[in-house]
Known about the structure:
By secondary structure, this protein is mostly helical.
Amino acid sequence: MLTPPPSPRYPSKNVPDHVDIALPPATPPSSPDSLKQRIGRRTKWTIMLVPMVLILITASTRYLTHPAAFDMFSEPTVLDWETFSSGSALDWTPHKRHPLPAAAADPSDAVASTLPSQSASFASSALQGASVSTSASASPTTAPPAQQTVPTVPASPPTLPTPFPQPFDSELSQNFSSISCFNFFSNMTNTLPFRECRAFSLLLQTSAAFIEAQADLNLLNSIVWGTCDPDTSDTQCSANMAWFSTNLVSSCQEDLKDGNSMAVNTQIALNAFDLMRSAGCLVDPTTNTYCYIDAAHNSNPSDTYFYSLPLGVSIPNNTIASCSACTKSLMTLYYSALSNSSQAQGLTSLQDTYLSGAKIAVADCGPAYATLATRSGAARPVQAPLWSFVGSTVLVILLSTFLYLP
């Protein structure tokens, strides 16, 4: 009997009876010292990162107590003027210096024949003795303005200082880029059509006598009354200032191009003549006092800052508004002017500064104090800066990372 051969098989593998698996060593319990070190590292990183993120969040806001992110919770109204100038009228580039040119023989001749609706005798008259100082020194006053009594609006014409404060009452700067521009300023500042209109917009930034009068509220009250009640009619003064603004552009082309501050700022003030006259003549009905006198009396300078918005001067970011009724009236006046398409054309500087001033008023005093507006005029609210949301997100991530990692 045949024995069958064994069946073919796959070669067997040498499999050990058991396999030793190396296990990781057990983690020893944390000692108190190592635990303290980890807590210390977390605390150190937290102390370092939290301030950095807070700085990141507040970098695009006005100040910590009133972050711009809070603006999104108000219901701003969108300004509806047609176009908003995106460029700033103030260009502080240096300009070349010219020697002092010889003044015209008769400073009034250049403007006498072309002023709008002026009689020959009135238009050609210039003040005698152009070198007479126009500084109206304030009467001796020992108490600072904040401690003086605010005078009411005069019921009858007060005694005005003689001579009345005038713009550019110090010597004209020699830093003109063109002789034609210097001659224009020399002629303009010595003609009655300019001087008798008592431009509040120009007194506010170029009159040494007006600045000195801030120390005496009674004197300042008379001066403000004089700017509100000039001998020349409001209509005629508006036409005069428009004429001077137009001729400044033609006479000071080179200076405007070079960014001559005197030429640029004067053109802004001439264009804002009507609006600034209305602003200077605002009265607080509860006290029957000029709002500007109230602002000069207030130890908080924020009220006076709002008067510079039409002149292209922004309010400092750290300003805390006093939330007076006059501030509300002033911002309402500005908004109304910008809402008027014909009036807004000459107020490009206010278009540049209004929004920042309105945001400060709203942040400190509430949405009733000013109307927020977008520069593009699109129907969208003023939103919080993107940096605020990014910074908040980063803060949460960093805190979770460093506080929960071993």
